[in-house]
Design goal:
Number of domains: 2
Oligomer: single chain
Largest sheet: 8 strands, antiparallel
CATH superfamily of the largest domain: GH92 mannosidase domain
CATH class of the largest domain: Alpha Beta
Radius of gyration: 26 Å
Strand content: 15-25%
Distance between the termini: 10 Å
Shape: globular
Helix content: 10-25%
Structural class: alpha+beta
CATH topology of the largest domain: GH92 mannosidase fold
């Protein structure tokens, strides 16, 4: 067995870094950040609209009546109907679920029908949502704590005010018509009702428990399970508190009681303060106010998921991990600014301990197995290697070693053939390339933990991406059981469900080797050939065939920013000594594909990944390699920024002479000393300090020298 040697700056000493991690301190609710929560609610962004707190179980907001793919979060900017206000939602996903336990106020009688509203009559801020319904006769206001939604309904009418509870309806989409299997409504006392809803859609046999407490005693009940309405006599205003639990009615009631008698205004002030604490982790001064708004909205979006899954009397556990998306940038961002990063990782580890397998896309206690790869592996390994507080590297390694025997499609061919035959495994190229990334993560953590045998095995397996590269065409291609590449071949061809590539094509997946870019360059035979093909990616015809995945959006040639496998590709120029081309492409993507409009996200938000890319890229660097603890320079879109790390240190970014024209890095200093490398380590960021970029209007030779490129040295196994 060959000895595994890892030539990077990470050491076991880094494992201790997070032991003194700071806890987030409350920030005044009066502080203001330029957040526009409606960004991403149009187009294909699928972003949640409503009230929540960072990573809370509750995401309370409106559900539209319309059935369509773009309603995955329950709401779309183009809609003007509301069927109710649900207590939980997904945000930015390509599949719909949740949107459950709907409350809806009515005047006179409960119709359980959709109500029209005017978007000009709604207000959306972090932690707060309000809208006027029924010709301005009812005003709805929403806010939230971690486990309890707070509703306030006010009327301007002589008609009686009723509140309907709808357990039949939930989020609708083209793919899912939420299928209620059973539900229950029970009176607890004259103010409180409780029960559960069980459905089977994306999360199969999913059960959520609820407890609703009204501010006035229930005078009369209309209807029966699953649609019940409550009348309160002659009142002008009704408040409702709704607690959820994934365990029991008793737990939902305990979650409700834990909030005590908090008033709506007090909860709202607390929610604003929690969001201000979250947004205060980075002080950002962009090139203009538009960039500031997009930046802070992006930072806001990164804290919607994962969501709290446990009850108040339990240790914090989380769910909703879109790992295929979020291992790329969301979780690396958490390791820098989020004191709960270790809790997210330990939630994944606990899932593995409980179920015997690592999570892929866990939702509300159910494994959806959505997408390819097992990307809890690099998330866990990255946190362990960086010394994130609360993550035990040895325990983490013990769990992620289960990856080799995970019952996931295609892995059974790896040891036997080294590759997945395209005639045996759907999405074979995409699956295999993603598995190679996971393999590299296992190898790196095993090496850091002193397990050389495991490190060597997975390091060798991480190189299997080479099987798919065709030197004659310069693309990653499907390979059949007989060892021949699939014919006919068109690098632009894509099918959504049946193909060698998932939500992409050969143009896009050829670059999916973020763990070994220099190995990928070598496959082309020369840096010149690599760069020629990379240039061609951005110059190719944007056209896609009929039947291609609708997720392939945000096109520059055949580069697709709207889908996550492309997100690191812009930064690969830097590995071949052309950092200036990375800068050019970063500026183009940031200006063309991120705006302040409702359709200001070019693809699914995907639980924060689209936004995390923007956060990193506007700061000036990006984690191309998901577990190496290294960030590759691009082109900052700020004048200054200060990252307040979880270690209690401040890392300051200064971009001198920065402007829309001055997009190229001319030189860099780190803590006052010349810095020639085109990358920076996680360790350097976390210890605090100041990096200064000198910007200019023309490409420079910065980062061109071989010794200054990310991992210019050969990494040997």
């Amino acid at each position: 067995m060959k000895k595994y040697i890892i030539l990077i700056t990470l050491t076991l000493l880094a494992l201790l870094v997070g032991l003194c991690a700071r806890k987030a301190e409350p920030v005044s609710a009066e502080k203001s950040f330029p957040v526009n929560p409606l960004i991403g609610t149009g187009g294909h962004g699928h972003v949640f609209v409503g009230a929540n707190v960072p990573h809370g179980m509750i995401s309370v907001g409106p559900n539209n009546e319309t059935l369509g793919w773009d309603w995955c979060s329950g709401y779309h900017d183009t809609d003007s109907t509301i069927i109710g206000f649900a207590q939980n939602h997904l945000s930015g996903t390509g599949v719909a679920d949740l949107g459950e336990i709907l409350l809806m106020p009515y005047l006179g009688e409960p119709t359980f029908a959709a109500v029209l509203f005017d978007k000009n009559d709604q207000t959306v801020k972090p932690g707060y949502y309000s809208v006027k319904l029924m010709d301005d006769a009812i005003t709805v206001e929403l806010t939230a704590t971690e486990r309890v939604a707070y509703h306030k309904y006010s009327k301007d009418s002589d008609l009686p005010l009723l509140v309907a509870l709808d357990l039949e309806t939930a989020t609708k989409s083209l793919m899912f018509r939420d299928g209620r299997q059973e539900s229950e409504v029970s009176a607890i006392d004259e103010y409180t009702v409780a029960g559960y809803r069980m459905s089977s859609e994306w999360a199969r046999n999913h059960k959520v428990y609820y407890a609703v407490r009204f501010s006035h005693p229930i005078a009369q009940t209309h209807g029966e399970n699953p649609k019940v309405a409550f009348a309160f006599g002659d009142v002008k205003e009704v408040e409702a508190r709704v607690a959820l639990s994934y365990n029991s009615v008793e737990a939902a009631l305990a979650n409700l009681e834990a909030e005590g008698g908090k008033k709506f205004a007090d909860v709202l002030a607390s929610a604003k303060g929690k969001w201000n604490s979250q947004l205060s982790t980075i002080d950002f001064k962009g090139l203009d106010s538009t960039i500031d708004t997009i930046f802070y909205t992006s930072l806001y979006h990164t804290a919607f998921a994962p969501q709290l899954f446990s009850d108040v009397e339990q240790a914090d556990e989380y769910t909703i991990f879109s790992t295929w998306d979020t291992y790329r940038a969301v979780h690396p961002l958490y390791t820098i600014i989020d004191p709960k990063a270790g809790d997210y990782v330990n939630s994944m580890l606990n899932i593995s301990k409980t179920t015997g397998r690592l999570p892929v896309w866990p939702l509300a206690g159910f494994e959806t197995d959505c997408m390819v790869g097992v990307h809890s592996v690099p998330i866990i390994a990255d946190a362990a290697l960086k010394g994130v507080a609360g993550v035990d590297p040895q325990a983490a390694l013990a769990e992620i070693r289960k990856f080799a025997s995970q019952p996931v499609e295609g892995l059974e061919f790896i040891d036997a053939k080294g590759y997945m035959p395209a005639n045996k495994v759907n999405w074979s190229v995409s699956r295999a390339l993603e598995y190679c990334i996971d393999d590299d993560a296992v190898a790196r953590l095993a090496a850091a933990c002193g397990d050389e045998e495991t490190a060597a095995y997975y390091a060798a397996r991480s190189k299997n991406y080479k099987h798919y590269f065709d030197p004659k065409t310069g693309y990653m291609r499907g390979k059949l059981s007989n060892g021949k590449f699939r014919e006919p071949f068109d690098p632009s061809f894509s099918l959504h469900e049946e193909a060698d590539y998932v939500e992409g094509n050969a143009w896009q997946y050829t670059w999916l080797v973020p763990h070994d870019p220099h190995g990928l360059i070598a496959l082309f035979g020369s840096e010149e050939a690599f760069l020629k093909q990379l240039d061609a990616l951005f110059l190719a015809d944007e056209a896609l065939n009929d039947g291609a995945s609708i997720d392939i959006t945000g096109m520059i040639g055949q580069y697709a920013h709207g889908n996550e496998p492309s997100h690191h590709t812009l930064y690969l120029y830097t590995y071949a000594g052309q950092q200036h081309k990375t800068a050019e492409k970063i500026r183009q993507v940031c200006s063309e594909f991120y705006t302040t409009q409702p359709d200001g996200l070019i693809g699914n938000e995907d639980c924060g990944q689209m936004s995390a890319w923007y956060v990193f890229s506007t700061l000036g660097f990006y984690p191309v390699h998901p577990t190496a603890g290294v960030y590759v320079f691009g082109s900052p879109l700020c004048h200054e920024a200060v990252i307040h790390t979880v270690n209690g240190t401040d890392f300051k970014i200064v971009a001198k002479n920065n402007s829309s024209e001055n997009k190229y890095i001319q030189s860099v200093t780190l803590d006052g000393q010349p810095y020639t490398k085109s990358w920076i380590s996680h360790e350097d960021i976390m210890k605090g300090g100041e990096i200064v970029f000198e910007m200019g209007p023309h490409p420079s030779e910065f980062g061109a020298a071989r010794e200054d490129r990310p991992f210019a040295e050969e990494i040997k196994y």
